[in-house]
Design a protein that fits this description.
Structural class: alpha/beta
Radius of gyration: 23 Å
Strand order of the largest sheet: 3-2-1-4-5-6-15
Shape: globular
Helix content: 25-40%
């Protein structure tokens, strides 16, 4: 019997846990689920004969080491700041670890000692990062094998609401961590286009999106992620003239969101005063000029050059920011207030389904001709538990775990899923589960 320790039992772990349970008896696994919320851990264990649950506190170093020592493999679904702590303990004890979260310098520094301990620390094995890496590498390796020279790679991913559940003018609902949505894009986006390095500061990001059409789903907007340049080395395409990784939103989102960025209400660096006495209207007015004789709506439109009959203004009005209703929280940063306001309007309804959309755009040269290959994937959630996000994050992790424990993945050290040994079995099984790319290739003008 092989022992799997899952740390963190939140909503994102649902599909992963269900996958592990489904395979537990056949693969002879025992799955221990640990979470600070003991009731949540018990609920996710669900009385399955191959599962158990514990209350787990990552800040308790004795418990952390004791539980990891009993495991053959550890899955960290904890907040990203705790992954280095888990990874360090796993390496010290010679235990494999997997997570869907981004790699970090602290974890990456453990690679050599992990190899010496015959241990694999697999990072970025979820959706984005994860499936994006795997499918990109599969396509790029295919282009290379037939002698093509890659000249451009653009990749966009979005966690969105399914069309049948899309009933608001933003065409968006929270399908993942709302805080991450409110803080998205902060910092400076870095990428390369046609051999020119480009940098977009946060206050310009949502006015510099690219319009992209996705077959059967219509128009989307893609804005660059924080750092695309780092992936040149990761993907082995250091000389590529164009490389952009970004985030998808439905058409119309970015112009409206840019209003909040320009106002400053996505700032998370300080706590606001007087929130206990503020309405939503007061909150917005706090970021506009002092003028008692002019309505808040008019001041906002004048300040940001918005017309009151525009779609942008209609989206702002729908959000309820001009209402004379108490702000939902009495303490916090502007970003936290904005998040609370949005959660009242943009949370999924009980019968809503979410949707994942990912698209890769490759351009390459072969035998004197130029080609474009567009690959896209659309995944719709089943319900509020088996969401598209949960499935596309959890299933790759589960498949990787199976292949690590049965010896099909022999790589050691700190890895991300860019090597065929890792991504090939994962993509093959995902295809059988209905998660696969649709490809469209055509010759383009030289």
């Amino acid at each position: 019997m092989q022992n799997i320790l899952l740390l963190g039992a939140g909503r994102s772990a649902t599909s992963l846990i269900n996958y592990l349970k489904k395979n537990a008896e056949k693969e002879e696994w025992h799955i221990k689920i640990g979470d600070f919320d003991i009731n949540l851990a018990e609920e996710k264990a669900g009385g399955h004969p191959n599962t158990s649950f514990i209350q787990f506190d990552i800040l308790n170093e004795i418990q952390t080491k004791d539980e990891i020592a009993k495991a053959d493999l550890v899955i960290s679904m904890l907040p990203a700041r705790f992954h280095p702590k888990v990874a360090t303990a796993c390496v010290d004890l010679g235990k494999h670890m997997v997570t869907a979260s981004y790699n970090s310098p602290e974890v990456n520094d453990l690679s050599d000692i992990a190899k010496s301990k015959n241990t694999l620390i697999l990072m970025e094995c979820g959706l984005d990062p994860g499936i994006d890496h795997m499918t990109a590498m599969e396509a790029m390796n295919s282009i290379r094998k037939k002698g093509g020279k890659l000249t451009s790679f653009k990749s966009y991913t979005g966690g969105l609401v399914s069309p049948e559940s899309d009933n608001n003018p933003w065409h968006y609902k929270f399908t993942w961590n709302p805080r991450n949505v409110v803080l998205a894009g902060q910092g400076t986006a870095r990428f390369i286009r046609n051999g020119r390095y480009k940098y977009i500061p946060y206050h310009k990001l949502f006015s510099r999106y690219e319009k992209i059409e996705v077959a059967e789903l219509g128009d989307f907007e893609g804005y660059p992620n924080r750092d695309s340049l780092a992936y040149r080395k990761v993907y082995g395409i250091e000389e590529i003239p164009t490389l952009i990784r970004g985030t998808f939103r439905k058409a119309g989102f970015c112009d409206a969101w840019d209003v909040f960025v320009q106002l400053g209400v996505t700032d998370d660096t300080y706590k606001m005063e007087g929130l206990e006495e503020m309405t939503k209207r007061d909150f917005i007015n706090a970021f506009l000029k002092y003028d008692k004789s002019t309505a808040v709506e008019d001041k906002l439109c004048e300040s940001l050059h918005i017309k009151k009959d525009s779609d942008v203004f209609k989206r702002l009005e729908w959000m309820g920011i001009f209402e004379d209703k108490q702000v939902p929280i009495t303490e916090g940063s502007p970003a936290q207030v904005m998040q609370a306001i949005m959660e009242e309007k943009m949370s999924l309804d009980p019968d809503d389904k979410d949707m994942i959309v990912m698209q890769h755009q490759f351009e390459y040269e072969l035998d004197g001709k130029k080609y474009q290959l567009d690959s896209s994937i659309v995944s719709i959630g089943d319900d509020q538990k088996e969401t598209a996000m949960s499935k596309t994050v959890g299933w790759p992790l589960g498949i990787a775990i199976k292949n690590i424990l049965n010896g099909n993945i022999k790589l050691r050290g700190v890895q991300v899923p860019i090597k065929e040994e890792i991504y090939a079995p994962i993509l093959e099984e995902l295809h059988g589960m209905g998660v696969s790319f649709n490809e469209n290739e055509r010759e383009i003008d030289s």
